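[scheduler] slot 2 assigned
[scheduler] job type: sequence-to-structure, two independent chains
[scheduler] chain ordering preserved from manifest
[runner] begin chain α
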Amino acid sequence: QVQLVESGGGLVQAGGSLRLSCAASGFTFRLYTMLWYRQAPEKERELVATISSAGNILNYADSVKGRFTISRDNAKNTVYLQMNRLEVEDTAVYYCQTMKYWGRGTQVTVSS
């Protein structure tokens, strides 16, 4: 069965960095676009970044452009989200997603 397992979240001060990972299994990872979403308390889920199957087409929400970088390692079945210059507004649960499947999320908390 398809599994997406996020890791790497935590508590960081504003201006700091975190790298999220999403380990995928149960499908042919290299064939699928991967996405990162986030959901802050009392807000709708927001698409943060997407990466094509080959890793050559990247898209970002305006709110994270220039600060976040999505990447993938098809040999390791893993997608990453490097988050730099974090802001308090980036506080959310971050989810990995592909096709109809979602991970359980990892909490990112940015303190001022």
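[runner] end chain α
[runner] begin chain β
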Amino acid sequence: VQLVESGGGLVQPGGSLRLSCVVSGFYATDYTTRWYRQAPGKDREWVASITDVGGVTNYEASMKGRFTISIDNAKKTVFLQMNNLKNEDQGVYYCNIRDYWGQGTQVTVSL
């Protein structure tokens, strides 16, 4: 099983990024994909999640309204659209399904 994140980068405060998580080698159904992030010196925190069946979404309260998680089941890809980014949003963003994790993609928010 491989989860490969991409789409991170450097963005100014107020800017947007769209992260992608491509899943391969995972053939189960009825699962939840989650995005987490980890800032330097802090614990990893949950950001958002989505189910493959029904596309049911959930968000950490401070990100609701700014972040949107979506899924393309045909392409086995989960997206995280992040708008109005703030300095506190920076960190490494990870994709997770059950016990599987990607390598992460770095998001830096700075002038």
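[runner] end chain β
[qc] chain β: The chain has a mean pLDDT of 96.
[scheduler] slot 2 released
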